[in-house]
Amino acid sequence: MSSFHASTHTTNGTFHSDRPIESAGQDLLGRETFARAIADRIAAWPGTESLVVSLYGEWGAGKSSVKNMMRESLAQQADKKKIPEIIEFNPWQFSGSNQLCSEFFSVIAEKIESLSIKSKVKSKSAVKKSAERLRKYGNKLSFAGQLLTAVGSAASLFVPPAGIAIAGAGAAANAAGGLARAGHEELASEETLHEIKKLLHEDFCNLPSKILVIIDDIDRLTSDEICLLFRLIKANTDFPNIVFLILAQRKYVENALDEITHSRGSEFLEKIVQAPFNIPEPAPNKVSNITFDRIKAIFSTHAPDTDWADAYWLKIWRKSLRLYFTNLRETYRYLNALLFSADAFKARGAFGVNPFDLVALEAIRMFEPGLYDIMPNYMSALTGHGAYDLMHLYFDKPDKRNEETRDILGKACDEKTRSRAINLLCDIFPPLQGASRNLEWGREKRAVSDMFFNNYFALALSPGQISETDIVDFFSFTGDYTSLIKLLNKWRVDQIIDSALSRIDVDTERLIKTNKPDVTFRALLDCGEEWIKSEQPSADLSDHAITWICEMLRDDSIKNRDTLVHDIMKATKASTLYGRMKLVNTIRIENGERGPSNQLVSADTYAKLEKIATQTISKHIKNKALIGHPAFTDIYWNWWRIEKDKATKWAGGQVRKPEFCIILLGSFMSKTTSVSSNSKKTIQRHYLRSEFMKMMENIAEIARWENSLSKIDATKLTSIQRQDLDAFNLAMQRKREGKPIDFLGDI
Fold first, then answer.
1. What is the per-residue burial (b if ≥16 Cβ within 10 Å, else e) of 156-186?
2. CB atoms within 10 A of CB 729
3. DSSP designation for 220
4. Is the pLDDT of residue 212 over 60?
C-alpha cells in the first residue's frame, strides 16, 4: 500500500499526492534505518536457498515507502555482486487465475533474459533457453490449475505436488473447449513438470546474481487471487537465488487463506514466509506533529494572522484532535480536504470562518462522517440558540438535556472513537456542557455562533448571508463617505443588509476605533434616513448606527468623545431627523441612568446636541414635512421625551387635521396576535389602553379627536389604519357605556 511522496508536501498550500516516497532523504517518520537493515539482510542472503520476506502494515502505514528505501539501500551496496536484480510484480494488474499464473513466471523470465552474460552463464542462448523453460513451466502450472479442481485444498497447500497445488480455490473442471485443448497439448509435451523444474533449479544456480521479486498491492486482490498468488510463491521457494518481498496487511491475507485451509491461514502463511517484519510504528506524536505543521502551512496563505499558540486551539488539538492522525496517508487525505475547504472560505483580505473550528470540523467530516451528517439537525443544542434556549422555560434539568444530546450525537460515531469525538465536540460547542452564549463566539467567527454555524456545513453562503469579503470592504471604506454609502446601498439591493448589520454588530469594537468615526457614522445615519424615507422595506440602519455610537461613548479609551459625537450630529444632513432625534433621546436616557459621575457626554455637550435636534424639528415643522415623515410617530415621541410641553402643544394644534390624527393614533394603539383554536387562523387585535387614552387627552380633548377622526374616508386608509380606527371607535363606545376600554375584541 502506498504512503505519500514527501516532496509534494510543500508549505504553500498545494494538494498532497498519493505517492510513496522514493528515497531516504524524503523520510519523515524515521524508518530509513529499518529499511536499510532489511536491505542488508537480503543482500547478504546466501544464494543457495530461496527466501520469502514480508512487510506487514495497515492501510497507509507506509509499506511502499519502506520498500522504495530498501531498493535505494540495495543499489548503494558496497559489494556490487550482492546487489540483486529487482522485479516489481503487481498482481493487481492481471485479472483471473490463468493470467496471474502465466504473468508471474513471464516477468521473471524477462528479467532472466535481460541479465548480462556473467560467470557460469556461457552464452546468450543459454540465458534465453532458461527464460523459455521458465515460461513453459508457468504455462504447465497455469493449465493444470485451470483444468483441475482443488480437491483437498488444505492438504495441497501444505504438501503441494508440482502443478496440482496451483489449482485455484474456485477453478472449474470443465474449462472452455479452446483453453482445454491448449492445456492438454501443453501437458502432453515431451517434458514433465518435474523434469522442467529440475532443469530450472540448475538454471537458477547459474544466475550471476540474486533476483528479488517484490509483490505489492496484494490487499487489492480477491480472496481467490490471494490464495493463488501464495501457492505460486510456495511452488517456487525451492529455487535458489530468488528472494520474494511481500507487502501486505497480514490479517487480510490470513482471512483470505482461511477460506481454503479451514481457518488455518495463519499457519500456512508462517510456512511460506521465513522472515516476517511489521512496519515500525512512528515515534509518538510524529505523525500528529507533521499534521500540525502542514495545517499551519495551509493557513499561512489562507489566514496568515492565525495564532497557532492560541489557548483554544491548543486545547482541542492536544486533548482530542491530534489523536485522529496515526498515519501519513490519513493525514494527507485529510489535508487535501482541508485545503479544498480553506479555499472555499478564503476571501479578499479575510477568512470566512474560524480556522481552528474549520480544522476540527473537517476532521469530524473525514473521520466521523455519521456524526458530521447529523450535526446540522442539532444546531440549537450545539449553539445554545433559539428553541433550545426556550426549553429552559419549561424544563428544570438542562444538564440532563445536554447529556441526552451528547448521547444521540455519540451514537453516530464509530464506537472506538466515540469518546474522542464527543470530547472534541464539547470543546467546539461549549453549550453541550451547559455554557451560556458568549458574544466573543461571533467576533471569532466560531462554529458555536448561530451566525456562522451553517457556513461550516454549506461551503457556500446561504441566501441573504454576508461574505467576509463584504465585511473587509466595509471596514476598508470607513472614513470614506461616498464609498461607504455606495456599499450600503449595494447590500440593500442584494438583500444582505440584515446579515451585514448583524455581522458588524459582533465587530463593534473594531468599528468604533476606525480612523474617522465621525465620517463613518455620518454616512450610516444619512444613509439610514434615506432608507426610512424610501418605500422599500429595509433593516433599520439608523438604529444600529445609534447603538454603535453609544458603544463608542461608553468606551473610556476613545479620546474627545464629546467633540466626536457633536461633530457626528453636526455633520449629518439637516434632513436626518430620525437619527438626530433618537440619538439625542438615547443619550438623554442613558445619561440619566448612569448618574452625574458617569455620563456618556457632558451636560454642555448634551445641550448642544439637543439644540441641533430641536432645530431640525423646527425646520421640518416650518416646511410642513414633519407629519409626512415615514417615521413620524417615532420622531414625535422622541421629541416629546425631550421637549414634552412643546411637543404636546404642537400636537394639540394639529389634532384638527384628520391625517395627523390617524398617524398619531397608531402610536397609541396596543396590538396583539393569536391563533384561533377552531379555525387555526391568526387573529390580530388592536385596542386602546386606558393610560394611552390619558395621554391623548393631554394632547387634546377626546371630543376633538373623535370629531377629526370622523371626517376620515376609511376607504383611503391602510388595513392597519382601519383597524386602529375601529379599535378607537369601539373604545369610545365602551367609555360612553361606562365599561373598561381595554377590551380585546376581534376587529
1. bbeeeebbbbbbbbebeeebeeeeeeebeeb
2. 15
3. G
4. yes
